[in-house]
Design a protein that fits this description.
Helix content is about 75%, strand content about 0%. It is mainly alpha-helical. The protein has a domain at about 275-375.
Length: about 700
Amino acid sequence: MAQPDSRHGSAALSGRAANDAFRRQLNKVYGWYTGGFFTFVAVLAVLEQMGLSRGAMGIVFLLATVALYAGIGILSRTNDAAEYYVAGRRVPAMYNGMATGADWMSAASFIGLAGTLYLTGYGGLAFIMGWTGGYCLVALFLAPYLRKFGQFTIPDFLGARYEGNAARLVGVIIAILCSFTYVVAQIYGVGLITTRLSGIPFEIGIFVGLGGILVCSFLGGMRAVTWTQVAQFIILIIAYMIPVIWLSVKQTGFPIPQAIYGYQLQKVTAQEQKLIDDPKEKEVVAIFRKQADTLADKLKDVPAALVADRAAAKKRVEDLRAANAPLAELQSAERALSSMPKDESAAKAAWTAARAAADARAKPLAGMPRHAAQYNGDPDGDANARLSFSESRRNFLALVFCLMVGTAALPHILMRYYTTPSVKEARSSVTWSLFFIFLLYFTAPALAVLVKYEVFNVLVGTPFDRLPGWIAAWSRVDPGLLSVTDINKDGIFQLGEMKIGGDIIVLATPEIAGLPYVISGLVAAGGLAAALSTADGLLLTIANALSHDLYYKMIDPNAPTSRRVLISKMLLLVVAVLAALVAAQKPADILFLVSAAFSIAAAGFFPALTLGIFWKRATKWGATLGMIAGCGITLYYMATTQPWLRGLFGVSSPVAEHIWWGISPISAGVFGVPLGFLVIIVVSLVTPAPKADVQELVEHVRYPNLRPTKG
């Protein structure tokens, strides 16, 4: 048996001592940081009581948090390749888990998850089950093996495992596609929060927030992003917990909402039945049903309906002028005339959208399902009810599958496990990631129920002139997210008269709960931290794929480190600006954009990565064609079934012609993943086996004590 090398043992002990010292220093720094953050919030609370305005407080929160992240970015600036791409591979497991938690707690998780649970009830649990379950797949199938492989990016692994640049290039394209889709959602969230904090227009708020994103990832790459994300996680988890605990104490007197919200759900369920039976709520539903039917009649003969509407609008303006009507009434009629559709195609599009909106609200509970109902429809009902139940259950399971597999394949998450000192730390890091993610995901269902209880029992029945100020404030931010109209003209607020988007539930929770405005600023800062942290990781993934995998590995292998890092920074800037321009168009809701990224990543990467690790026979042509096929069918299904994408690609045929087995576009990856596996397996079996050194690489990655043989 070979004797241990004393110098190697001394070096290992020295390395462990250095790592322990580094960890102790981090504990001290972030301990002081957490205490300082609590002090900062307390000072602002005192200043609010002394008269500090809400606008000033919002700007202070915005500037202070962005300045903090910028400071970390400046202190962590680097041009060293290992530091820039993988933070020097020295991030301890707990802190990498915290950074991964922040990287994961995107705008969708922080802003959108509880809102989705509020709007969809039980169906929203698919997101929690899929996203948390995905980390089990990460721990079992990918993280430790990719860390043992080393290198910098996911396309790096694909290039080495599948013998060349074909698989690497496809990997680069898919990484950019899913990461860009995801980052657009984060920048949209940044714009929404920045607007709420500062009062500036949404389109400008996007670019203001973009500065906070860029200063970290631009200057210090993964090194700056990692330590910023740890700081961001501390802010976001504190910001998320405080309003929920307050609501729990306010409603039940118990400070642990995760344990008590089941009792509140029983009360919500009872109140749902009262609202369904309420004559005033039925009156509102009937008005929306009449609107939907009127629009349906118009769509039967668009040209004639458009002519009739124009004539009626012109006559109203002329009548008001002849009667010398009040100026405000006349101006309203003139605006109605000028805002009419310009032609038949515009009229058809506008009326179709309006009819869909009216249809959605022409139902009890403002179109929301009962919170505790598992699926739509009824398995014991008529044919339509049974079909609805079957499709609802199928979509729930398909979404859980896509989110689980997508989690295990997202490049910006998998890159985080390249930053740990060892394979053991990578495994431990996944456990810490799950713990930190669990803190928020275990709380989101409670938040949704507590807010719904507050709306059903406090808001409903309030006179319109006494509605709380947060309704008007959020209506000004974006009427598409929140609007309230007295549909039946009774002066009393009914649930059906409020249109609310899930993206504001969390941000408005402090005001719904009656908390001081400083907590609203804190929650907005938490949401900003969540969006910024994920955007940093995504932009870095895109820039690294272009600079490292495309430029360095495929175009100029002799490029010096300084040039590679500089190109990465320049590309990061370009991609960030492009993503901000797309986000300014408000292309779709946050949750759809994020879920689309999961389906793309699942179909594009998961089959190639798992077979690349666990099946030596997988070949480069199998992997390349499998990634193209899986991603291609996923994108095709989304483009032909998702409303915004259908409009973008000019798909005019009925949606029903493109729907397969009732699966919604958000779960398109359910078709791409099995197709990817099938193509890789079939093509690999009919093409030559990988070279011996590639098969040795697979053995080395899979088995901990095996070392590749030397040629």
